[in-house]
């Protein structure tokens, strides 16, 4: 059996680079996924509030509920960036906030904007 001299199997640089890329992807995922989940939960909460809002629910009550849920989710949402208005049988909501996601040597400002307009059903 002949031995191949040109194939020595010493390609360590490619392995090291792929491990660095994998480590970077894991670090980004660990930082970004919880922020995205919290943002999606806030949007789902806003949708649920809009669906369950009745005739006696005021826009101020909805705004307070959204701010409380954002505080529970540790999202930096303040009262100046939340607008809730009732126009006839419609409920319009808008929440805008920016979450700083910190990486070693860099802070990414992730901007979110949740807008929805839902009808209020009178039972």
Structural commentary:
With about 120 residues, this protein is of the alpha+beta class. It has one domain (about 10-120). The chain has 2 helices and 3 strands. The protein has helices at about 10-50, 60-70; strands at about 80-85, 90-105, 105-120. A 3-stranded antiparallel beta sheet has the order 1-2-3, covered by helices on one side. A hairpin with a 2-residue loop joins β2 (about 90-105) and β3 (about 105-120). α1 runs antiparallel to α2 (about 60-70). The radius of gyration is 24 Å and the shape is elongated. The N and C termini lie far apart (about 85 Å). The mean pLDDT is about 85.
- Main sheet record: 3 strands, antiparallel
**Overall shape:** elongated
Give the strand line-up of the largest sheet.
1-2-3
Write down how many β-strands occur, each being a DSSP E stretch of 2 or more residues: 3
Content of β-strand: 25-35%
Q: pLDDT under 50 segments (min length 5)?
A: none
Distance between the termini: 86 Å
Number of helices: 2
Features:
123 residues, alpha+beta, three-stranded antiparallel β-sheet, 2 helices
């Amino acid at each position: 059996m002949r031995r191949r001299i040109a194939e020595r199997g010493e390609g360590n640089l490619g392995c090291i680079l792929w491990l660095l890329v994998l480590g970077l992807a894991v670090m980004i995922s660990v930082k970004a996924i919880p922020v995205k989940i919290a943002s999606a939960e806030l949007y789902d909460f806003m949708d649920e509030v809009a669906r369950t809002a009745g005739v006696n629910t005021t826009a101020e009550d909805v705004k307070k509920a959204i701010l409380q849920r954002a505080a529970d989710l540790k999202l930096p949402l303040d009262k100046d960036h939340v607008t809730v208005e009732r126009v006839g049988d419609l409920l319009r909501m808008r929440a805008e906030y920016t979450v700083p996601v910190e990486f070693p040597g860099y802070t990414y400002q992730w901007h979110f904007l949740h807008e929805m307009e839902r009808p209020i059903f009178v039972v």
